[in-house]
TrEMBL record:
GO molecular function: DNA-binding transcription factor activity; transcription cis-regulatory region binding
Domain called HTH tetR-type: residue spans: 11-57
Entries under InterPro entries matching the protein: Homeodomain-like_sf, HTH-type_TetR-like_transc_reg, HTH_TetR
Organism per entry: Gordonia soli NBRC 108243
Keyword set includes Transport: no
Keywords linked to the UniProt accession: DNA-binding, Transcription, Transcription regulation
Source species taxonomy: Bacteria, Bacillati, Actinomycetota, Actinomycetes, Mycobacteriales
Domain of life: Bacteria
UniProt keyword annotation of DNA-binding present: yes
Protein name: Putative TetR family transcriptional regulator
Length: 230
């Protein structure tokens, strides 16, 4: 019996859209109907559960973004990133989020991610070992924040991820309302804001105290998903 790959693809897109609009508890029967599936159990057939669908959406986008970051990091290793390495790293972080999902046909991924990223299944979806470019990017970002203690680096990365998801979700919403215009904030603005959040001077612990290694940061649950979804 042939596998209905088209049906699976439609379920991924429908699940992404409806969860972006209604949250991760959007009825599975509505997702199946939006995907043109007459069988209300279509999600369970293809993904095993609601959680399986959520993880499949995340992994599909993240796999492609990791490939994009691999190429960007290779270019960065050649050029060195110029005088402002933090900005160069943040561009590797942000740019794929503005391009990859939409090249794959998404219309709602940023809003989906903003709604589901704290879901228990998502926060432990996969270890960064599965996404080597993103893991390397986390480490390089951590190392670039030399003005911060280890504890504040971890806090800054976590808080910045939350703000970044919200900003890109807002950008996506505005683009949907006015597709012919120039939605605000733009990619350049969001990149600059992210650099500002990460590069802001230390506000608490003196440099060197409470240090955490890059591996600790990369595998801390609240960072693992937050940064992975970059």
């Amino acid at each position: 019996m042939a596998v209905d790959t088209g049906g699976r693809e439609r379920l991924l897109l429908a699940g992404e859209r409806l969860m972006a609009e209604r949250g991760p508890d959007a009825p599975l029967r509505d997702i199946a109907a939006a995907a043109g599936q007459r069988n209300n159990s279509a999600v369970h057939y293809h993904f095993g559960s609601r959680e399986g669908l959520i993880v499949a959406i995340v992994e599909r986008r993240q796999d492609a973004m990791d490939r994009a970051r691999t190429a960007m990091l290779a270019d960065l290793s050649t050029t060195g990133g110029g005088d402002d390495r933090l900005t160069a790293l943040v561009e590797v972080l942000v740019a794929p989020m503005f391009t990859v999902p939409y090249e794959q046909g998404s219309t709602h991924y940023a809003r989906f991610l903003d709604r589901v990223r704290m879901h228990p299944e998502v926060s432990t979806a996969r270890n960064l070992d599965h996404w080597p470019a993103t893991r390397m990017l986390v480490s390089k970002l951590y190392d670039s924040l030399t003005h911060l203690s280890g504890r504040e680096r971890a806090e800054r990365l976590s808080a910045t991820s939350s703000a970044l998801f919200a900003l890109i979700a807002d950008h996506e919403s505005r683009a949907a309302v006015s597709p012919s215009g120039t939605p605000q904030p733009s990619q350049a603005t969001i990149t600059a804001m992210t650099v500002g959040m990460l590069g802001y001077p230390a506000i608490s612990t003196p440099l060197g105290k409470g240090a955490a290694s890059p591996d600790v940061v990369a595998t801390t649950p609240e960072l693992r998903f937050g940064i992975a979804e970059f």
